[in-house]
Specification:
Order of helices and strands: EHEHHHEHEHEEHHEH
CATH superfamily: P-loop containing nucleotide triphosphate hydrolases
Shape: globular
Number of domains: 1
Strand order of the largest sheet: 2-3-1-4-7
Bound molecules: BIS(adenosine)-5'-pentaphosphate
CATH topology: Rossmann fold
Strand content: 5-15%
Distance between the termini: 8 Å
Length: 218
Amino acid sequence: MRVVFLGAPGVGKGTQAEQLAAQYQVAKISTGDLLREAVRNQTELGREAKNYMDQGQLVPDAVVIGLVREKLSDVSCANGFVLDGFPRTVPQAEELGKALASKAMALDRVVNFQVSREDVVRRLSGRRSCPKCQATFHMDFAKPKVEGFCDRCGESLVQRSDDRREAIETRLKVYDEQTAPLVRYYEERKLLSPVDASGAVDVVFQHLSQVLMPYRMR
Ligand code: AP5
C-alpha cells in the first residue's frame, strides 16, 4: 500500500495515518513530525525549518524532498507507506513521482480528506500535544484522562506554536495557494479519492479503510 494523505491543516491526516500504519503495518512518513524532531534536536535542518514552521509557512521544497527521499529508501517502507503532509506543492509531487519511478514503484492512491473550514479551525485550536512522546489530544474531541497531562507518559501537554490563531490563518492561506492545486494534479492522474473526514475518528477510519481495501489485499 503506497498512499498519500492530502487535506487542509488539522483535517485529521496525522490521526488517521497513525491508525493506518498500526493496522496495516505500513511505514508512516510525516514531514511535519520529521521537521519537529529536527527542531527539538536543534540540528542545522531544524534551525533552518523553525522560523518557517512557527509562522505557518512551508519549509523550502529542497529540504523536505531530501528528507522524504531518505525515508523512502528505508527498509521500513518495504511493506508500503503512508505519506502524511507530503507532497504539499506541485514541485514536491513531481519529485516524489521521480523518486518512486527510480525504484520502479508508483502510488496506489491519494486520499483527500475533506472537512469544513470551521471544523478545521476548531480541531487545530483545541489540539494539545505531548512534547515528550508526541501523542496528540484535543480539548473537546480527544480529551486526556487527566486534564493537561499525557495519557501515555504523564508529561504536561502543550499547544503547538503553529496552532495559535495567526499561524492557523497563515497555514490555511498557504494551503489554498500552494497545496490545493495538488487536488487537480492527482485527479488528472486518476489517483484521487475524496474521504469525508467530518465524523468521529473511527467513522473516518471506516471510510478510509473502504477506499484502501483493494490495495491491502495485494
Ligand atoms: P504538519 O505537521 O504536516 O501540519 P498540517 O498539515 O498543518 O497538519 P496538522 O498536523 O496540523 O493536522 P492533521 O491534519 O495531521 O490533523 P491531526 O490528526 O493532528 O506540518 C507542520 C509544518 O511543517 C507546516 O506548516 C510546514 O511549515 C512544515 N511542513 C510539513 N510538511 C511540509 C512539506 N511537505 N513541505 C513544506 N513544509 C512542510 O488532528 C488535528 C486535531 O484534531 C487533533 O487535536 C486531533 O485529536 C483532532 N481530530 C483528528 N481527527 C478528528 C475527528 N475525526 N474528529 C474530531 N477531532 C479530530
